[in-house]
Design brief:
Blueprint: E1 26-33, E2 37-45, E3 49-59, E4 61-66, E5 69-75, E6 78-85, E7 88-96, E8 102-114, E9 118-123, E10 126-128, E11 133-140, E12 147-150, E13 153-155, E14 158-162, E15 165-170, E16 177-184, E17 190-200, E18 205-210, E19 213-215, E20 220-227, E21 234-237, E22 240-241, E23 245-249, E24 252-257, E25 264-271, E26 277-287
Parallel strand pairs: 10-17, 19-26
Antiparallel strand pairs: 1-8, 2-7, 3-6, 3-8, 4-5, 4-7, 9-11, 11-15, 12-13, 12-16, 14-15, 16-17, 18-20, 20-24, 21-22, 21-25, 23-24, 25-26
Length: 302
């Protein structure tokens, strides 16, 4: 550079490597004047399969290379061919001839027949239905835009991490049971992992009862407060199952405690229909009511 050269400034923009997907072929074009030239572009192939390459050269002459292998020569024509590619990145190069004053071309790469998805495992395999959670699916040949279903229920949005991993948020409130996980690629190919996910319910949790003490000479209503009480839950006082139980909500139950219980301190246990339970020890004091009889004192007359 000369002594009076001005500083040079550049604007640099970093773009992600373009990806060939099932529903989005990639195309790029070029033009040369007089001298031979070449154009290179790196493309990402998300899954192993057969890809279709199309090079149109309306004017002039050009060759196309894939990772410097097997050039295809054409002149003022169109060439189309299929090529098997493994998952990964490839350098596509179009070389233009110097023989022609002008060469114009357009190259297009599209996915033709990719391998079917393969679902290998998920995590977690067991979860509760009281809150949403992230389900991770591991496998192979997952395409961008793949969908995911638990049994027949589609889940969205699905996050494509890479060809071997998908993630989706499972909402709260699913019915307890075993669910099959199905991954379907945009080309319609799918794979199912049968009974892969088990959804359960949380155990009940007793916070308090009211009243905390009562007499055994009459029946009374015992109210139990807590969380995750299921309809049909049972209540026991120190192992004695109560007959009249009312489920009010997931946080409240009521039970009629009959008269005649022996005096003492009782634990309270709530058991949900799925067998999960919680016990609040020393929660209830049963007492015997004491009665006093006052007799008049009669003075004896001498």
């Amino acid at each position: 550079l000369g002594g009076n050269a001005l500083p040079l400034q550049y604007a640099l923009t970093i773009q992600p490597i373009p990806m060939v997907t099932n529903d989005e072929p990639l195309s790029w074009s070029g033009l040369s004047k007089g001298l031979a030239g070449q154009s290179q572009i790196e493309l990402s192939v998300p899954v192993t399969g057969v890809y279709h390459v199309r090079l149109e050269v309306p004017v002039g002459f050009a060759n196309i290379f894939i990772d410097e292998a097997a050039p295809r020569g054409i002149e003022a024509s169109i060439i189309e061919f299929d090529v098997p590619l493994d998952e990964g990145g490839y350098l596509f190069e179009v070389q233009q001839s110097a023989v022609y004053i002008t060469t114009t071309w357009t190259a297009t790469v599209s996915m033709k027949n990719a391998l079917a998805p393969e679902t290998i495992s998920i995590t977690p395999t067991v979860a509760l239905n009281d809150a949403p959670f992230v389900l991770t699916i591991l496998g192979a040949n997952f395409q961008p835009g793949a969908s995911l279903a638990l049994d027949a229920a589609d889940l969205s949005p699905v996050t494509w991490v890479n060809s071997g991993e998908l993630q989706v948020t499972v909402p709260a409130g699913l019915t307890p049971g075993a669910y099959s996980v199905t991954v379907e690629n945009p080309d319609g190919k799918s794979d199912t992992l049968a009974d892969a996910l088990t959804i359960g319910t949380p155990a009940p949790a007793i916070a308090s009862v009211t009243p905390v003490s009562a007499f055994n000479d009459a029946s009374f209503t015992l109210t139990i407060y807590g969380a995750d009480f299921q309809p049909g839950a049972s209540v026991a006082l120190s192992g004695t199952v109560m007959i009249s139980v009312t489920w009010v909500s997931a946080g409240e139950m009521q039970v009629i405690v009959p008269a005649g219980l022996a005096a003492g301190v009782y634990s309270v246990t709530v058991t949900n229909p799925d067998g999960k339970s919680d016990t609040l020890p020393g929660a209830l004091l049963i007492q015997v009511r004491e009665y006093y009889i006052y007799l008049p004192v009669v003075a004896k007359t001498p």
